[in-house]
Structures are given as structure tokens and as C-alpha cells.
Amino acid sequence: MHDQNFKNLILDYPREALAFFAQEETGEDLKLARIIPIRQEQLKDRLGDRFRELDVPLLVEWPNGNREAILFVLEEETQANRFSIYRLAHYCLDLAELMETDRVIPVVIFLNPGTPKTSLQLGGDRHSYLEFRYLSCDLKRLSANDYKDSNNIIARLNLPNMHYPKNERLQIYLAAQLGLLQIEPNLNKQRKYIDFIDFYADLSEQEIIEFQTHYLNKEGEIMGLAQILKQEGRQEGRQEGRQEGRQEGRQEECIAFVSRLLRRKFGIHPELDQSLVILQTLPVEKLENMAEAIFDWTDVSDLTEWLRQQLLEINRAE
Length: 318
Hints:
Elements: H1 2-12, H2 14-21, H3 23-26, E1 34-37, E2 56-61, E3 70-79, H4 85-99, E4 104-112, E5 119-123, E6 128-133, E7 135-138, H5 153-157, H6 169-183, H7 187-201, H8 205-215, H9 225-240, H10 244-266, H11 270-278, H12 284-293, H13 300-317
Parallel strand pairs: 3-4, 4-7
Antiparallel strand pairs: 1-2, 2-3, 5-6
């Protein structure tokens, strides 16, 4: 179960996964690279042999030629004490031979703490003939508070898997959900990774009730999300100035976000589709106000009336 969860996570967000789990080896130029998932099952020496399946092998290439291609082998290990460095070494050697490269970087993501073997050295009294080690990301040893405002979606989704004080459990859960909704615009992926957060947060019934009471409104939306995005928009506006091109970019972001909120609240509705067209005519300030007002509406008619009032104000101002 955990293996498949992390396979999905890494394949959906390979660049962010490498930046978080293997930052030591990726560098600042990762954004210029092309990332290619490769086959998981390795070729067998004999047809009767069992496949050795890797979690997620990713080939990273730099088309500009600044760096040679690197093969990252990412493996999730639920119980650190069950991890076999010998098995991982086998994987990497087989993969290096198959891909005809020595540039292979193994990365192990430990979900639960333990004392796994961190290096392997084969040799005799006089010489070492094989040395092997790997990059390690022990999630439970990371402080969730260090990543609760991160722009990396991998970090935000894994906040429940990190270390945090027990009395901050719901705040960390909230930070993970806010991160997903702020960073990921795709509704299908939002639904998919809300499940990821819920699975690893594993809230009790009492904690769920407390979260619903203090952090959700009556429609089940996260309270404070609109205000947070509104504040971010103002900060971005101060940083970017009044350049028209940047303002248009901010407007597009606001339209996309407000459209997602409306579809989540009202679903498929003929009047909603008509209203979404009108959003294109609204300035950023009114879109930001709308993001906050949505939480008070109970019917599409509330949206229609609000838009009517805004258009009247705009016409009077002109």
C-alpha cells in the first residue's frame, strides 16, 4: 500500500520529488532537466527467475549539455529495520548495466524510524573492492514546522509523515491540505492527494470532529483559504508593481482559483457556466473579494446576484 502511494506521488510530481528527496544531488538546474520514468521490472537472466522491481527509477537528462544524465533510483521503505542494502545494491548494479551508465544515485525514503545499514563495503584485509551507500530521507526525523509553508508539494503532502508536537497535529493536517489546494490547480489531483493526506494523518473520530468544528465552515470548505490567497495576491502585487502583463497573470490565477471553488461548491449547473464567463471581465480586487464571499453563499442565485452588483458598480465607475 505505502509503496504504491509513493510511486504515484513521485510519478505525478517527479521534479518536486527529486528536489525534496535528493536535493543534495539535483542542484539548482533541475528545472532545466528532462525527467523520464523508466521500466520498473529489470530483465531476467533466466525466464524462471523472479523480477526484481524497483519503486521508481527516473532518468534525468540536461538537454543543454551542462551535466551528464543521472539515473535516480527512489525506493520507499515502510519499516527501516526491514530495509536490505544488499537488495538495493543489486538493483542499482543491474540497472547500471542495463542502462550502460555508472551515474546511478540510490535514494531511500524511510516512512518509519529505525537503524538501517547505511553503507556496504566488500573486501578483504588489504583492500576494499566494492563500496556502496545511498541518499536517505527519514521522514520522521524531519520537522514538519520547517516545511509547513513550503512551496514544494511533496513536502506539504508529507507533513503528516514528519515529526511534530502532538498538540499541533490538526494544524499540521491543515497545512498539508492548504498546501495541496494552493499549489495543485488540477481538481482530479486535489481529490487524489486529499486521500493521501487523510491516509497518513490517520485522524481519530474525535480529531475529525474537532477539525470540522474549528477549521471547516458549514459547507465543508477550509476556512481561511480565501483570505490566505487574498493576502498572497496582495504581497505578489506589491512585489511585482503595476506592470500590466503581470497583473493579467495574477488575474488568470484568481479566475482559475475562484472557478475551482465554485465548481466544488455548486457542481454542474447551467447558471454556473454562464457566470464563469463573466469572471473574465472582473478585475483582480473583485475576484479576491469573491473568493472570500463564496463561503457565505448557499445557492447559485447568490453568485448571480453578487455578479450583478459588481457589474453595476463597474458600470457606474466608468
